[in-house]
């Protein structure tokens, strides 16, 4: 089989020929139909990652057809279309034992510790991580597993009520899904914030009530102007999450506001501790959701309530081009690889 491999930090992915994995026990081999191109993949390619064992195959937003199964696999058979819950747990740490594999303390990460979906075939360690998606569009279904799932989890962490004002910072693959989900599932007013006018136009198409370009107007003043009594936003979900956006998000919040940190750009936030003590503001991690959240998303998708926006499709061997365009901000919504 062909696979695009990360051979070292800062180096382009290379196309390798590898044997098709052979499953045993509860393992399943998927013939990949689509794999989403995520900013996490870009981070793996461009950065020196602690614990990385090069080369490895990235990619964790996977849909495909079951190619082979181990002898102990139940309820799944060859030829069925499935998606993969990507955050495998070690099953022995406290978080896994409490039902939070997404917060596993020693995660065997798909697309990092375990080879991922930038390949024609991928080995999944247990059939319990699979969800059947029958006749669903494989490109859209793949994006549910991380882009949509992380957005869905962030919305849950935001603790929204129907009269809330929600600000979504960053309208990429996750932000566009968050706008859709917020408008379909709640009665909140949504403000989408980005410096890219094309992404803001897409946010309006997805249902945003307002769009905000912080390079053209003061974002904090804008939110104060449209909020109830000038109090600020009830919740901010930051899908960028660098020092600048984190500070803006914090300053936008009203009393008892919720600040959900989701993006992976990194940086620091200096917090005035007295204000934290008296304001009731909550700072929350917006990490990827649990397996049950993904099943809920699949149900929403099958009922037509949400639809991932796929703007570009790339051949497997063009993975480097896909990552370059993602880094340059040229991808609207999500791009997928098609092995």
What does this protein structure show overall?
It is a single chain. With 339 residues, the protein is α/β, with parallel strands linked by helices. The protein folds into two domains: 2-135 and 309-338, Quinone Oxidoreductase, Chain A, domain 1 (Alpha-Beta Complex); 151-285, 3-Layer(aba) Sandwich (Rossmann fold). The chain is 29% helix and 24% strand. It has helices at 39-46, 94-97, 138-157, 173-185, 197-205, 219-226, 243-252, 273-279, 291-302, 319-327, and strands at 2-5, 14-17, 28-36, 61-69, 81-84, 121-124, 130-132, 165-169, 189-193, 210-212, 233-238, 253-261, 282-285, 310-315, 334-338. Strands 3, 4, 5, 6, 7, 14 and 15 form a seven-stranded mixed beta sheet that branches. Helix 3 (138-157) crosses helix 9. It is globular, with a radius of gyration of 20 Å.
Feature tags:
single chain; 339 residues; alpha/beta; Quinone Oxidoreductase, Chain A, domain 1; Rossmann fold; 2 domains; 6-stranded parallel β-sheet; 29% helix
